[in-house]
Amino acid sequence: MTLPTTHVSFPAGAVTGESPVLAVHRLADGRYAVVTEATPFHPLDHTWPDQPADHGTLTVDGTELAVVDCLTGAVGPEGGELLVGADIPVRRGDEEWSWLVLHVLGDSGDPGELVGRTAVLAVDAERRGALSASHSGCHLLALALNAALAPRWRKDPGRSDAFGNPDFDSLAMASSVMDTAASTDTYRLGKSLKKKGFTVDATEEFPALADALPALTEAVNARLAAWVAADAPVRIEVPGPELTARRQWHCELPEGGAQIFCGGTHLHHLGELTGLRTELRLSEDGTELVAVTSPERA
Question: Beta-strand (E) ranges in the chain?
Answer without folding.
Answer: 7-8, 16-26, 32-36, 38-39, 56-60, 63-75, 82-84, 98-105, 118-123, 173-178, 183-188, 234-237, 248-253, 256-261, 273-282, 288-297
